[in-house]
Specification:
Layout (H helix, E strand, L loop, with lengths): L3 E4 L5 H11 L7 H9 L9 E6 L2 E10 L14 E9 L5 H18 L4 E4 L11 E2 L4 H9 L3 E12 L7 H12 L2 E5 L5 H11 L2 H15 L8 E6 L2 E9 L2 E7 L8 H15 L4 E7 L1 H8 L4 E12 L4
Parallel strand pairs: 4-5
Antiparallel strand pairs: 1-2, 2-3, 3-4, 5-13, 6-13, 7-12, 7-13, 8-9, 9-10, 10-11
Helix pairs in contact: 3-4, 5-8, 6-7
């Protein structure tokens, strides 16, 4: 039987989960994650979640996404971008043959929708990794580059033990100096809501705003807590913030105008201290760059994975 490609259906759910685990072992997902981050995504389209079968057996899949129902703000300013967030091929099958066909089939779907660019992995509302793991999935990265994708950025994942983390005298001194300048770092309060959202919308990427809105809604339901967010204030303005979910640290950011004063260092330290107080033994950040990594390294973070973020021009213009 020839190789066939069909849209995702729930009849294939268990096959997909099994193959996902086999092909992407560092990023295997559960039924809950499949539902919450893929099938319930407002932009999910089964027509761009393609399944490849050979002799009736599932041998590969490619999950493609685009702004079908929900606009993606500055991540897709013209509505012409698309993403492949996961691609897996059975170890028994030919990665280049089946993977190459899957990429081509998904690209044709995107072209038919008028999408001009395709990025790999970094779809803002639901990426599993920032890009393609350079070491763990080297053959997959080569497949994409051989298919015309160009690496344009790198992302780093980092982890740190925090079970003995405490604020150093240097951090405390830096915090005291900031306070003398009217800059305060403290836990978020419910009465910060309107100013906090205004700060996020004016200074942070649209996806970070989306994440924080989700968490602030969870806060009203008792599923998130004010102590999981730290804000930086200058007089009556919010000029920075940091948050954590479980052992996941971030996002965190400071207004451009106030960078270079050590605010981020104190903000990071105060957040890690709170995480340790809540009983977390480790902290991890999924996506950072080489510049910010140097700040994390001061707190014991080490690089655990490095990703290539790749993209391809699908249509002219």
């Amino acid at each position: 039987m020839p190789l066939t490609f069909t849209p995702y259906s729930d009849a294939a759910r268990e096959e997909v989960l099994k193959l996902w685990s086999e092909a992407l072992p560092l990023d295997a997902i559960t039924t809950d994650i499949l539902e919450s981050r893929v099938l319930l995504d407002e932009n999910f389209d089964p027509q761009t979640f393609l399944l490849a079968r050979e002799n009736g057996k599932l041998t590969g899949f490619a999950l493609g996404l685009y702004a079908k129902r929900m606009a993606l703000g500055d991540a897709d300013p013209d509505g012409k971008r698309s993403w492949i967030t996961a691609l897996g091929v059975s170890k028994e099958a030919n990665l280049n043959e089946i993977g190459g066909r899957l990429i081509s089939e998904v690209e044709q779907k995107f072209k038919g929708l008028g999408k001009k660019e395709c990025f790999v992995s970094s779809y803002p509302p639901g990426y599993f990794t920032p890009g393609i793991d350079q070491k763990a999935y080297a053959p997959l990265l080569k497949l994409f580059t051989d298919s015309g994708y160009i690496a344009f950025h790198e992302a780093i994942s980092m982890d740190a033990p925090i079970v003995t983390f405490t604020l150093t005298p240097a951090i405390l001194e830096k915090q005291k100096k900031l306070e003398s300048q009217g800059i305060t770092i403290r836990p978020y309060m419910r009465t910060d809501l309107v100013k906090f959202l205004a700060f996020l919308e004016q200074t942070m990427p649209s996806d970070w705003v989306r994440v924080e809105r989700r968490n602030l809604k969870k806060l009203t339901e008792g599923a998130f807590h004010t102590e999981q967010i730290f804000v930086v204030t200058k007089d009556d303005d919010i000029i920075g913030y940091c948050q954590f979910e479980g052992a996941h640290f971030g996002p965190f950011g400071v207004s451009d105008k106030f960078q270079g004063q050590g605010i981020g260092t104190v903000l990071l330290a105060r957040t890690l201290e709170r995480m340790r107080q809540e009983g977390h033994h480790d902290a991890w950040v999924m996506w950072t760059d080489d510049i910010t990594a140097k700040v994390y390294e001061k707190f014991g973070f080490k690089e655990t994975r490095r990703f290539s973020i790749v993209k391809k021009q699908l249509l002219p213009g």
